[in-house]
Amino acid sequence: MFTRIRRRALTLAFATGLLTAQVVTMGASPAAAAPQDCERGANGFVDIPDTLRGAQAPVAPVSIFGRTATLYVGSVRGVTRGWAHLGGDTLWGDSVWMDWTQNGGRTWLQCGPFEVSSGGQTKTSAAQRASSDANWQFRACLRWGRHDPPHVRCTAWW
């Protein structure tokens, strides 16, 4: 009897562990993407100058050690679009990207990273059209240098 109870308890614990592992690994994650997946018109993105700024989207910028990622929105080629911008005390190796979701953040495409090649340089992601669809959202992310583990911060979704 004791062995049967212990066996059931171990089986339950093992099953719970597997379920927990599945939930963690099946959580929201980005699609595998590289800068070329959102440059030169890929996936509806358009290239913009690294100095372009628009109106700050209604989410707070994020900062790490003097570098700041801001999500901007503005007119690009006559269309309202969103993009990520990295500025501040940047150094070689800092990078910025924009995550774009069409399902409220359950999955997303990571547009970038776009890396700074010299200190003090600003950098932007490519720009994607905005939408009134509540599931169509963006966030700006930055990575400080090439550290391991990485120092990464992202804005809230907008």
UniProtKB/TrEMBL annotation:
Keyword Signal: yes
Signal sequence coordinates: 1-33
Keyword terms: Signal
Protein name: Secreted protein
Source species of the chain: Nonomuraea antimicrobica
